[in-house]
Structures are given as C-alpha cells and as structure tokens.
C-alpha cells in the first residue's frame, strides 16, 4: 500500500522502506539510525529529568574547543558512544566534545562509516529549559583511502550521506535527510517511537526574519552590518534563541535566515564545521534552501582540513541568503 499522510510510520520502518528501493541495499542506514534513535530517546529523557537528577550545570572542565562542559554534554556524549559503539559498520565516532575520534574498527574490518556529532548543542541554555539538540552527520569513508581516521574522514573521497538533528523542545523532533529530501518525525512518548509527521519538508523561499546574535554587531565585518541596516529599514523581524538546533528548526519550518558571522575575536565564527554547519547545511539544501560560508562560497564546497575547525554560516530560505550574500559581496 502506498504511503499516505494517514498511515502511521515509524522512523525505523521509514528508513527500511527507503532502503528497499535500492537493489542490494545493505541495511547500513537502518542499522546506524536505529542506534541514533535509541541514543536520542535516552538523551531526551535525561534532558527532561535534568533538574530532578541534578545534572544541570558545569562540570568544571573544558572541552577540546576550550569551552566549559556541562554535565549533560558529557552524559550525552557517553550515551551516543554506547549506543553507536556496537554497530558493525561504523569505523569511527567523532564528537565535538572529544579531541580525537573513537576508533571502532578499520575499513577492512567493515568500518565503512564515521558518525560525527554534537551530542548536546546549546547545552548552556539547559538551566533555563530552552530547547537543545543533538546534531549528527554520517560520512561514508572513501574506499581505498588509507591513513588515520582523521585523514580518512577529511579525504575528498569521503562524503556526507546522511544528516539530522533531534530537538528536545516542547516535543522531541527528529529531522533527517539521507540525501533524498528532508523528513520530520516526532517522538510519541506513549509508544516510545519517532513517528513520521512530515515527508519532504520544504523551507519557505522567503520570510523577513533574521536570526543572529545582534549584540556582537560592532564586531561583525562590514557586509553583515550593512545587511542588518538594510533589514531594519525593510521591515524585518528578529528571532534568536541562541541554541542552534532550535534556531535552525524554526528557520526550516517558517523560513528566514540564520547567521553566525566571523567576529573580531573569532575570524572563523563560532560554529563547528563538521558537527554543526555541515549537517545543518545538508538539511537546509535538501529542503530547498541555501547555505553559504561567505559571498560566492557554498558551505558544503569548503574542504575541511581539521576535525574541529569553525566556519562562518549563513543558511536558510534561498531568497534570504541571497540578500545577505549581496551585502557580503559588496564589501
Ligand atoms: P555549543 O556547541 O557550545 O552549545 O555552542 C553552540 C551554540 C549554538 O547552539 C548557538 O547557535 C550558538 O552557540 C550561540 O552562540 P552565541 O551565544 O555566541 O550567540
Ligand atoms: Mg554545539
């Protein structure tokens, strides 16, 4: 029976059904995504109970980025590693929270994929119960590429084949692309499953909303400043939560543009290429939007050279990214 909006479809059956369309499919995605689904349900549960279990707050350590780790950052990181660690087709797990990848198995031993993730993005907002999220990217490691896991992940032959995020907000939402559009699932707590609520999600082409930390405006390059002046004079509205998953989720559903520019102190901006910008860019593009790292530079065309590198981000509705780009290219 063909899928209709009325049929109940779990994340797992959706991925299996997609895979069946490819003759000879190995079940790789369902194997990886079922582990991500389990991990994010577990993290979501921790997030909801954080205040009760007293796991809110700082750990007193800094991560590889030099940022203060929250207790839940570390818990979420461990949960993902324990859920994905047993999947036979994953070669390496790479976390925003850890300096070096966790190696599970070599390419020859079946480790064909690396999963890159930000276990709990926006975690500094947890103490005020703002939506936070897990972001992930699945990279198929290039056949025949040898060297360290870092070298294999960054090799041009390796490519991102799936990406998504889970938003722990007023509902728990799983947004996924495997390169054929974007699908959205919501966790039905009563049955413990993510169920499909929207297939082939498309971002609105335009909406007069920008999402940027405007308090830093004096530290932005000229082009961004002039864009903001123009947006003010053109009747734009502003929405900024300060939690990327929540800001991108709103942008994806309602339209607008999300921007994290370079600043005087951080020439590359704040967001991490591989754990935040790359997966979000795949989602936005698959939904029909645009994502750039600067004027004329499609973000996904930038070749990363370091697992933890940062990158400026302008992503969202195609018309809105065009507007920002116009000002960036004039500077
Ligand atoms: P994190 O990975 O340490 O949580 O930081 C990333 C977060 C994003 O969720 C958000 O878009 C950004 O930091 C907000 O930064 P700022 O407070 O500078 O606006
Ligand atoms: Mg983050």
Helix coverage percent of residues?
A: 25-40%
* Overall strand count: 16
**Number of domains in the coordinates?**
2
How do the strands line up in the largest sheet?
Answer: 4-3-5-6-7-8-9-10
State the helix count: 9
The parts where pLDDT drops under 50 for at least 5 residues are none
Q: Rg, please?
A: 19 Å
CATH architecture of the largest domain: 2-Layer Sandwich
What's the average pLDDT? 92
Q: Determine the N-to-C terminus distance.
A: 55 Å
CATH class categorisation of the largest domain: Alpha Beta
CATH superfamily of the largest domain: Fructose-1,6-Bisphosphatase, subunit A, domain 1
Overall SS class: alpha+beta
Bound molecules: 2,5-anhydro-1,6-di-O-phosphono-D-mannitol, magnesium ion
| Element order: H for helix, E for strand | HHHEEHEEEEHEEEEEHEHEHEEEH
**Main sheet summary:** 8 strands, mixed
CATH topology of the largest domain: Fructose-1,6-Bisphosphatase, Chain A, domain 1
Global morphology: globular
Binned strand content: 25-35%
Give the helix/strand layout.
Elements: H1 11-20, H2 28-48, H3 50-53, E1 58-62, E2 68-70, H4 71-84, E3 90-95, E4 102-103, E5 113-121, E6 132-140, H5 149-154, E7 159-168, E8 172-177, E9 182-188, E10 193-198, E11 209-211, H6 222-233, E12 237-238, H7 244-254, E13 257-260, H8 273-286, E14 290-294, E15 297-298, E16 313-316, H9 318-330
Parallel strand pairs: 3-5, 11-12, 11-13
Antiparallel strand pairs: 1-2, 3-4, 5-6, 6-7, 7-8, 8-9, 9-10, 13-16, 14-15, 14-16
Helix pairs in contact: 1-2, 2-4, 6-9
The structure holds 2,5-anhydro-1,6-di-O-phosphono-D-mannitol and magnesium ion.
Magnesium ion binds next to strand 5.
